[in-house]
Design brief:
This protein has 209 residues and is mainly α. It has helices at residues 7-10, 19-32, 39-67, 71-79, 84-96, 101-109, 113-120, 135-143, 146-161, 167-178, 185-201, 203-207. It is built from twelve helices and no strands. The model is unreliable at 124-133 (pLDDT under 50).
């Protein structure tokens, strides 16, 4: 029998979008699932996940998250890890993986409000830096501040998906902003700025708090 070859058969195969990144992403997520992974290796893998998310853009992030449903549970474990620096990098990775309102909503469906609230309650060093502190040291202290990473995540989610912000997060911002006994005036001011942004984008939510 003679096989008929169509023009479609002669077209080159179209590679799967972000195929290379999907493989790297899956390897990093799988590595985080290993219980004996060291703190350093966890940070390396979380940093890799954040870099991939930044590299592929919003469409790529949607593709990666859809391809790996276990991603959210894996990241939740990292954001509640006993090591503070692992939690910091976990919160940073979340920020890189939430480019729009639907994915922002997914975070709160998977109870990521818990590590956010925990981070806000940490006794991290004040974000008010001594002007004499070397720039490199200031950058390192800022990077390692768990509550700063949590606030940056919340501020980002307000920007991309204010409709997905739950009432608990709004009340957390209100509580910190109104706490005049809190010595960390810089963090209070940042929370207030985030709350103002949320007010513009989701007035009904802020009014309910």
């Amino acid at each position: 029998a003679v096989r008929t070859v169509s023009l479609r058969d002669m077209e080159p195969a179209v590679p799967e979008p972000h195929a290379a990144e999907t493989g790297e992403f899956e390897e990093a997520v799988d590595a985080l699932g290993q219980p004996r992974l060291s703190r350093r290796e966890r940070i390396v893998q979380l940093d890799e996940i954040a870099k991939i998310g930044e590299r592929v853009g919003a469409d790529g992030v949607r593709h990666l998250c859809a391809a790996l449903p276990r991603l959210w549970d894996t990241l939740l474990v990292q954001c509640l890890h006993r090591e503070k620096l692992v939690r910091v990098y976990g919160l940073r990775a979340l920020r890189k993986l939430s480019p729009d309102a639907p994915l922002a909503g997914r975070l709160f469906e998977h109870r990521f409000i818990v590590p956010i609230m925990r981070a806000f309650d940490t006794d991290a060093a004040s974000l008010t830096m001594d002007p004499r502190t070397p720039r490199r040291q200031t950058k390192e202290t800022t990077m390692q501040s768990e509550k700063l990473q949590a606030l940056k995540l919340v501020a980002h989610l307000v920007q991309v998906g204010a409709s997905a912000i739950p009432r608990g997060v709004c009340m957390l911002l209100v509580s910190v902003s109104e706490d005049k006994k809190n010595p960390d005036t810089t963090f209070r001011r940042m929370c207030l700025e985030t709350l103002r942004d949320l007010l513009v984008r989701n007035t009904k939510l802020v009014a309910s708090c």
